[in-house]
Amino acid sequence: MLQNERDIFNVLFEAVSEGVIVVDTRQKIILTNASAERMFGYDKSELVDKDLIVLIPQEHHATHGAHVEGFLKQKESRQMGRGRDLYGAHKNGTVFPVEAGLNPLQINGETFVMALVIDISIRKQQELQLQELNTKLEKKVFERTLELSNTVEALKAVNLDRDAEIKKRIEAQNKTKDALKKEKELNELKTKFLSLVSHEFKTPLSGILTSAMLLGKYKLSEQQDKRDKHIKTISDKVHYLNNILNDFLSIEKLETGKINYKFNTFKISKVVNEVVYNANMLLKEGQIINYPESIDDYSLYQDEKIVELALSNLVHNAIKYSSENTIVDIEIEQDDKFTSFVIKDNGIGIPINDQKRIFNRYFRAENALLTQGTGIGLNIVKSHLENLGGSISFKSEENKGSVFTIIIPNKAK
Ligand code: ADP
Question: Greater confidence, 276 or 83?
């Protein structure tokens, strides 16, 4: 190399920012540049003739020799420390991270290795900071996610509250609607009542008036039987009107849910005797009521008044819708849970087309229109029985007769 070339080489060699360290095959340092000396804390040429090992931290001495020898055998340039971190040892004893590339050289038949070393402390520090930042960020993300999921949960709870609120409102609206509907029905009922009063009450009232007038005419003491007849007529008709009024009161109570059932234990025979006793007064010429007399063992825990009302309604209908000289049969059976009352007549029956509407309020079959009635009784009986866990049904054939059946639990709940 000419002096001039050597000068240029030296300038370049010293100017390179990487540390350059040349070692021979025994790993003795032959040459270092200023960057390498600065990096490892040595004065100019202080490293020459020293073992390379002085630049390597104590804890890596054991593995270092083998690495260099392996490299010398392969004799090609490569990056050192692939897959692991490399460290340099500063003269002052500190250790710092480096990156090193190894290049084999042949000069005059002798092998050397030129190592290019970079101090990567700052980069490592930055990496570390980045890692810390990442960890912090991850922590923050985790915290935020947690906060978010808490918020979502809170929102869900709010939603649930809102749903409950909406449900409540709908319920309130429905209640108002129901109340309005009931009010409307009550109004209809009142209108119906007025028209019924003017229609249904007319005949009995004029009967009562006539009897009362005639009563005044029978002044002689031997006319007592005539007086009795008119007194009976008056009392029957007053009874009849009273029953209609009671039916109306029942409907209103059923409608407004104001019914309080009163339960007690009673003998069925007591109710049957009472119903039959009252019905006997309504019997037409030649009509008979057959009823079981061996029912003294049967008792009910029920609302006695309602059972009586149901039974008397059916018996009165059987009498009312049958002609003279007919029989009304009452049959009663009881098992361990239910009691059934069956009321049979051979009356006018219910036309097949009217049968499905027979329990509708105010409905009267077409063949019954000449007989007095309001079409309320069966509707009330059905409502009461259903309230008490019972039922009512019938079979009927026009001009042959009808069979009505009531089933009621022996014990009210
Ligand atoms: P009402 O007898 O006052 O009209 P109900 O509600 O008791 O009212 O009966 C409704 C209708 O059912 C009656 O109008 C009648 O058409 C029919 N009905 C009820 N019971 C009998 C019966 N035993 N035989 C024939 N028809 C009946």
Answer: 276
Range of the structural domain that residue 113 is part of: 3-119
360 Cα: distance to centroid of ligand 1 (angstroms): 11
Which of 193, 247, 289, 317 is the pocket-test mutation for ligand 1 (most atoms within 8 Å of CB)? 317
> How many Å lie between the centroid of ligand 1 and the Cα of residue 258?
26
Cα atoms found within 13 Å of the Cα of residue 130, Cβ hemisphere only: 6
Out of 108, 139, 174, pick the residue that ends a domain. 174
pLDDT in tens, 285-310: 999 999 998 898 999 999 999 999 99
298 and 236 in one domain?
no
By alpha-carbon position, which residue is closest to atom 11 of ligand 1?
A: 364
Residue nearest atom 8 in ligand 1 by C-alpha distance = 375
User: Is there a contact between 32 and 81 (Cβ–Cβ < 8 Å)?
Assistant: no
Say how many domains are in the chain. 4
Ligand 1: centre distance to CA 131 (Å)? 93
133 & 95 share domain: no
**282 shares a domain with 361:** yes
Q: How far is the CA of 128 from the centre of ligand 1 (A)?
A: 98
**What pLDDT score does 50 carry?**
94
Q: Which strand ranges, in their side-by-side order, compose the sheet holding 338-345? A: 288-290, 327-334, 338-345, 401-409, 391-397
201-203-204 Cα angle (round to 5): 70
Single-letter residue type at 247? D
For residues 303 and 375, membership in a common domain is answered with: yes
Q: Do both 229 and 201 map to the same domain? A: yes
pTM for the structure as a whole: 0.56
Least confident piece of the model among 70-84, 128-142, 350-364:
70-84
Pair 134, 115 in one domain: no
Distance 81 CA to ligand 1 centre (A): 109
Which one of 358, 362, 376 would you pick to mutate in the ligand 1 pocket, going by the greatest count of ligand atoms within 8 A of its CB? 358
Domain boundary among 242, 259, 276: 259
Pocket of ligand 1 (CB under 6 A): 313, 317-318, 321, 345, 347-350, 358, 364-365, 368, 373-379, 402
- Both 126 and 52 in a single domain? no
Asked if residue 83 and residue 127 are part of one domain, the reply reads no
pLDDT classification of 319: cutoffs 50, 70, 90: very high
